[in-house]
Amino acid sequence: LSVVFDSLDWMLKFISIYIYYKLFSFIIKRRGLDRLYKLFLFSYVLLVLNLFVGSLGFGQPMYSNEFGEGIGTKGFIYAGNEASVTLIVSATFLMIYYLDKGFRWSYVLAGVALIGSGVLISSKVAILASMMVFAALPFLKLFKNKSFLIYNKKDAALAFVIFATFPIILLSLVAYIWLYSSLIDRLSFFYSKMDIVTLLFSQRNIWASDALNLFNENYNLVEKLFGKGKSWFYLMESGSMVEIDAIDYLMTYGIVGVLIAYGFVVFVMLSSLANRNNFSGFLIFISLLLMAISLTAGHVWNSGTAGIFIAALFAMAMSRCKTNENTLI
C-alpha cells in the first residue's frame, strides 16, 4: 500500500506543476509579473541566506568525503538537489525580470549571488547551471531581435561587461574550489575508482543501465506503456530511484508518463514562441536547461520544493509584456 501512495506522490507533484502553471498564467495575464516578483525574491533571499548560514557550519553538508568530512552545504534543507533546482529557477525568474525592467545592477547582484551559492552548495549542476544562466541571459536579451543590427545600448554594455569579466569569474571559482573546497579531493577520489562518464553522472549512468535492463526484461506491454509504480525500486540492486527523471518516470509511469512530462515542457516552449513576448528566448533556454538537469541529475519534475517555482517561471510564456526600452543603436 505504501508503494501505491509513494507512486501517487510523484504523480501529484508533477500534476501540481501544471495546476500552478495555469494559476500563474491567469495571474500574469491580468496582473503582470509584479505579483510574482515578491514570491521569487523572498524564496531566493531565503535560499541564499540558508546557504550562507550553512557555510558557517550550521545545517547539513551537501556531501561527505571518504573521511566523513563535509563538502559543500545545503543548510537546513534536507533535499540538496531540489534546493539547487529551486535556487536556479528562482534566480532565473528574478534575473529575467531585472533585465526586462532595465535593472541591470540588480541583475548583476542576483547573478553573483547565484554563482556564489552554487559554489557553497558544491554541486556540479549548481555551479555549471548558475554560470550558464548568468552568462547567457544578457546575450539572449541583446539578440532577441531578428536583426543583429538593432539592439539596446545598455544591453550591449551589460553583455560586453559580462563577456569581459567572465574569464576572471571562472578563474576565481576554480581557485576557490581548488584552495578552499574539498570538492576536488572528492572528485579525485572517485575518479581513481571509476571512468569519467560515471564520475560526471555520479554513478547514475550505472543505475540507469540497470533500470533499462529491468524495463526490457521484466515489464510486460501494459507496464511499458503505463509503468508499474515505485515497486521497481525493490528490483534494483541499489534499492532506490535512478535520479534521472526520464528513467524514473519511464520505470514508474511508462512511456506515456515520459511523453506527458516532457511534452508539457515542449508545449511551454511552443506557447512562448506563439505568444511572441519579451521572454520567449529566455524560456526556451531555461526549459532546455531544466530538461538537461532532469536528464543528468534529476529532482526536477518530481520536486515538491521546486515545482511551484518552475510552474511560475513557465507561466511567463503567457505574459503579454512587450519591450519598453527603445534606445537602439
Short description:
With 329 residues, the chain is mainly α. The protein has helices at 2-31, 34-55, 80-101, 104-121, 124-142, 153-180, 183-191, 196-200, 204-218, 221-226, 245-275, 280-294, 307-314; strands at 63-64, 70-71.
What does this structure look like?
- It is a single chain.
- With 329 residues, this protein is mainly α.
- 69% of the residues lie in helices and 1% in strands.
- It contains 13 helices and two strands; from the N terminus they run ααββααααααααααα.
- The protein has helices at 2-31, 34-55, 80-101, 104-121, 124-142, 153-180, 183-191, 196-200, 204-218, 221-226, 245-275, 280-294, 307-314; strands at residues 63-64, 70-71.
- The chain has a two-stranded antiparallel ribbon.
- The longest helix has 31 residues, at 245-275.
- It is globular and about 60 Å long.
